[in-house]
Amino acid sequence: QVLLVESGGGLVQAGGSQRLSCAASGLTFSSYVMGWFRQDPGKEREFVAGVSRSGEGTDYADSVKGRFTISRDNAKNTVYLQMNSLKPEDTALYYCAAKSGSLVIRRVRAYDYWGQGTQVTVSG
Questions:
Q1: What value, to the nearest 5°, has the Cα angle with vertex 113 and ends 90 and 34?
Q2: What confidence tens digit (pLDDT) does each residue in 49-78 have?
Q3: Maximum Cα–Cα distance across the chain
Q4: How many Å apart are CA 57 and CA 41, to the nearest integer?
Q5: pLDDT digits (tens, 9 = 90+) for 107-120
Q6: Which of 10, 102, 116, 118 has an alpha carbon 20 to 30 Å from 21's alpha carbon atom?
Q7: Closest listed residue to residue 51, CA positions, set 60, 43, 42
Q8: Hey, which bits of 1-124 come out as E strands?
């Protein structure tokens, strides 16, 4: 059984930083592209960032480019999202997801496995 478990969410002031983690089990982690997505109530889930299987390739949504950094540790089966200079519009439920294949893709339906999400709320 594949499990993706996010952690690190919470309440933060605008301008602050937060680091999300996603621990994976039940899959060969290094064989999967990993992504972070977010969703506000009433809105569609949107791509935030993605990282290649080796960790060398990354992609970011324009709205977070320069502020967020995605990384992975294949020895720990964990993917991270470092979020800096947070804005109120970053408030959302953040999900990590795993995708087979080698390409980092932004499309939600391309991802095979999903976590339950962790809430990030930016005040200010």
A1: 60
A2: 999 999 999 999 999 999 999 999 999 999
A3: 40
A4: 30
A5: 999 999 999 999 99
A6: 102
A7: 60
A8: 3-7, 10-13, 18-25, 33-39, 46-51, 58-60, 68-73, 78-83, 92-99, 113-114, 118-123
